[in-house]
Design a protein that fits this description.
Length: 516
């Protein structure tokens, strides 16, 4: 017995050392934590339970039989975040670059370790968080490691919409180590030490002769502001893991669970007088929609997603009376709040996440329409804009919409209008709901008077009187009520409370065919 215990301790020690002291030091020198240290920050203290610590690979090519490290470069198991169950894997870059092995389909190896916790997560209906720090498929294993990744991809797909999947990119990630995250719901990155690319700068140079740094090709800035692959980036390992803990509190454990309700220290009856003057007198003067979101949120807490991409639309999570709400809002500060290709894609994906996981959706509308022009048309704004239309129309979760100012044209329809099964559609007194703005409208319907500025001015006034208000829509029942801006928090919180037991379903189908 004593002998076994000694062996156990020795094996554990070996596993904890990963790829060895030198490589651990190199990891620390780059400002990165080790795979195990990361799990300690992510999970509640002493909550981590490890699986398969002694698993090794089964590859005999390229001298691999001498490079067997217990755990095989990935730490897997489960734990809790603020008391709620989560399955985790953390790739260990010090062991063969965290590369993924699958030496033999029937033996448990690195890929099988990840698959095992993914299967358990789906069976036990809890989220999966992957800490990725990996060079992708293990080169020495050839097609066997590709098969391993395909097993992971298959599970990412089957788990999608059943349990939330979150990826954190914490080092240079390539190949499967970026495609698997791409199939998950959210990707968080670490600034200046994490990279995502299908092929790294060396291959890019060899194939295209293009010289590019890892940071330019696949750093956090590139993926949060240009490609939109990543949802947020933070300064270092500790901050990103703390933010993932904060994020985790907003989401449910699975698609039939409700998001957690947190204790609130903010009265739901709080009114915000300053909102009465948020919208400027001049309809063409921008204002910051984020101010509205923050002012109505419990304790002013807004977890913004894709902050640096398509800034003409804001998406993220807040709580109202302790319960999670997904927010989508046009941002008049950027492109006057117009919808375009990028903002439609960004918001559509967010709406679909909320709908898949029963998170109610709050929409703030100030949109002059879709952005016109050849670059948008050639880029397929019709198809991309339709994504958002489709996402809102199919969503069956509670939907509350507030029009703060402009709701023009097709964009009015898109932004969670009554016609797309909006439950509560409110307008502020400053709302203008019309096919288009006054200037454009009179120039079309009074084309004969184009040379007469006096006449045009009269036509504009008549048009504004008729349409630059919420009443035409309210008369038709498309707006449920005109509410005072200062009361927005209370009114929407009450609306969502009344929708708590909402049941709505779509016609039976295999799956829909959203315009991808
Ligand atoms: C085996 C690997 C490896 C891999 C890195 N290593 N990637 N071992 N298989 N895929 C090992 C290195 O040999 C080295 O071992 C250690 O990890 C650290 O790697 P370095 O190159 O020294 O580190 P760094 O300079 O930081 O560069 C990291 C990197 C680079 C950018 C990830 O290693 C790299 O480009 N690797 C290959 C990426 C790749 O092309 N992967 C295959 C993808 S195909 P020692 O012993 O020196 O510590 C794929 C298919 C999936 O994944 C399907 C997609 C649809």
């Amino acid at each position: 017995m004593e002998n076994i215990l000694q062996q156990l301790e020795k094996r554990r020690e070996e596993a904890r050392l990963g790829g060895g002291k030198k490589r651990v030091e190199a990891q620390h020198e780059k400002g990165k934590l080790t795979a195990r240290e990361r799990l300690e920050v992510l999970l509640d203290r002493n909550s981590f339970e490890e699986f398969d610590m002694f698993v090794t690979h089964n590859c005999t090519d390229f001298g691999m039989e001498t490079q067997k490290i217990p755990g095989d470069g990935v730490i897997t198991g489960w734990g809790t975040i603020n008391g709620r169950l989560v399955y985790v894997f953390s790739q260990d870059f010090t062991v063969l670059g965290g590369s993924l092995s699958e030496s033999h389909a029937k033996k448990i190896c690195n890929a099988k370790k990840i698959c095992k916790i993914m299967d358990m997560a789906v069976q036990n209906r809890a989220p999966v968080i992957g800490l990725n720090d990996s060079g992708g498929a293990r080169i020495q294993e050839g097609v066997a490691s590709l098969a391993g990744y395909a097993e992971v991809f298959k599970r990412n797909t089957l788990a999608s919409g059943v349990v939330p999947q979150i990826s954190v990119i914490m080092g240079p990630c390539a190949g499967g180590a970026v495609y698997s995250p791409a199939m998950t719901d959210f990707i968080f990155m670490v600034k200046n030490s994490s990279y995502m690319f299908v092929t790294g700068p060396d291959v890019v140079k060899a194939v295209t002769n293009e010289v590019v740094t890892a940071e330019e090709l696949g750093g956090a800035k590139t993926h949060t502001s240009k490609s939109s692959v990543a949802d947020a980036a933070y300064d270092n390992d500790i901050i990103v893991l703390k933010q993932v803990r904060r994020f985790f509190d907003f989401i449910p454990l699975n698609n039939t669970d409700k998001s957690p309700t947190l204790e609130v220290f903010d009265s739901i009856n709080r009114s915000e007088m300053s909102l009465d003057t948020l919208v400027p007198e001049n309809p063409n003067t921008p204002y910051d929609m984020k101010e509205l979101i923050i002012k109505i949120a419990d304790e002013n807490d807004f977890f913004e997603i894709q902050k640096e991409f398509a800034k003409n639309i804001l998406v993220g999570f807040i709580r109202l009376n302790g319960s999670t709400v997904g927010v989508v809002a046009n941002q008049p500060m950027v492109l006057a709040g117009c919808l375009d290709i990028d903002s439609s894609r960004k918001a559509a994906r967010f709406v679909r996440f909320c709908d898949a996981f029963e998170i109610p959706i709050l929409t703030f509308v100030d949109v002059p329409g879709f952005l016109p022009g050849t670059s948008q048309e050639y880029g397929g704004v019709i198809k991309h804009g339709a994504k958002l239309l489709f996402a809102y129309a199919e969503a069956t979760v509670p939907k509350v919409t507030v029009i703060t100012r402009k709701a023009y044209g097709g964009a009015y329809d898109v932004m969670a209008s009554k016609h797309l099964r909006g439950d509560f559609n409110y307008a502020w007194p400053t709302a203008e709901i019309a096919v288009m703005g006054a200037k454009g409208a009179v120039e079309i319907i009074h084309r004969a008077d184009l040379g007469d500025s006096g006449k045009l001015e009269n036509h504009r006034k008549v048009y504004e009187e008729r349409f630059a208000n919420p009443f035409v829509a309210a008369e038709k029942g498309f707006i449920d009520e005109v509410i005072m801006p200062r009361n927005t928090r209370r009114r929407i919180a009450r609306a969502f409370a009344s929708l708590r037991n909402k049941k709505l379903s779509n016609p039976l189908k295999k799956h829909d065919n959203i315009p991808l």
